[in-house]
Amino acid sequence: MATTSQPLRGKTTCKKIFWAVFPHACFIVSLVIYAFLGALMFSHIESTRKVIVSEEYRTFLQNLTQLAGNLSDNVTENEEVYKKDIPELFNRADPVWFINPEERWNFFGSLFFCCTVFTTVGYGNTYPVTRIGKYLCMLYALFGIPLMFLVLTDMGDILATVLSKCYNKFRELQSKILASKLFSGSACSKRNELKSRAQSKIVINEPLTIMELLRSQTGMKRGPVKYRNVELFEMLIARENENTQPVRNKSMERWSSCPELAREKTVSKVIENFDKIGKEVEKLDVPIVLMVLVIFLYISCAAGALPRWEKNMDFQEAFYFCFITLTTIGFGDTKLEHPKFFLFFSLYIIIGMEIVFIAFKLGQNRLIVLYKKVISFCAEKNVPSKKIYPK
């Protein structure tokens, strides 16, 4: 019996783990598939577009050639051209003129564009040019952004649970250290007093026996005490039988009698997991300073690694770029030379966006509490006090 029950227990635990992980994996896999499908779609549409030399592009080249011909050998005379004329000319230029569609809109470039769309970063250095690509970009963002927020909320629950448990463990450890210091510094009399209190608490918390309950009723008359003792006796026996009876495994009974009921129970648990999305983030209560410290350390790790393949960045520029990315601001002033390598950094971006999302949620909760206090304080000041007139 023991040998057969062990494989059954192993299967049931594996099933429980599978159904617990299933909702989280479902969201992540859906987002990955959505990104790959979008990359295939945009790479096919934008890379195959025809490059048309417009009249504006020809005018730009003519003006640039004219400015280059007017340059003299004297460097001081050319300063006005370098500082004013050439920058003005390039500000009026369209960046699409200098982009090769096949190189920019390959699979990895399109995947990078899709990630910037549904994460709402939008650097601006890559954008669709064709009319069909623009329409599909709006439709793609319409479904991709809610999916991304769903993944952020779901993964934010996991991070919130980890953060809250770590913070609670830290507080427990801190309280234990303080308690041990106070206990070691106290006198022997205080130790004895604490021991006596602990013993008294243990005695009180222990279940009373029948004889102790009967002795506690000595203050009453014998007539009613007799019937009262019988009731107490029956109640204690009933409670003792409830405690001694083995707990029945209702799920096993249902499984043995009707497997459909057990399946419905597992399905209902999975549905409950979907319904609990976002609850852990709402319940998280850690200091906002701790979250700021976590964000600073998280961005610093990437800022130290990013300049290794992006040679035009130092630590400060990489820190700025990561902060602008994780907060989904995405100015686009800092461009990447190797977006392919940054795509492998996508897991870092998603986790970082979740940490920033949790920090923003905590800040929002703190602001709501602050506004409530200010409004209640102003309301108390404005409420007129009731005057009590003497009779």
Descriptive notes:
One of its GO terms (molecular function) is potassium ion leak channel activity. This is KCNKI protein. The model is unreliable at 200-206, 219-223 and 247-257 (pLDDT under 50). The protein is elongated, with a radius of gyration of 35 Å. The chain is mostly helical. It is built from 16 helices and no strands. Among the domains are: 55-93, no CATH class; 104-177 and 281-383, Orthogonal Bundle (Helix Hairpins), CATH 1.10.287.
Give me the secondary-structure topology.
Layout: H1 2-47, H2 55-70, H3 79-91, H4 101-104, H5 107-118, H6 131-185, H7 188-205, H8 210-215, H9 222-244, H10 250-257, H11 259-275, H12 279-283, H13 288-305, H14 315-326, H15 339-343, H16 346-382
CATH architecture classification of the domain at 104-177 and 281-383: Orthogonal Bundle
**Series of H and E elements:** HHHHHHHHHHHHHHHH
Number of helices: 16
Largest sheet, if any?
A: none
- For the CA atoms, what is the radius of gyration? 35 Å
Membrane topology: Multi-pass membrane protein
Domain Potassium channel: 101-159, 294-364
Protein name: KCNKI protein
Transmembrane segments: 17-42, 105-123, 135-153, 286-306, 318-336, 342-363
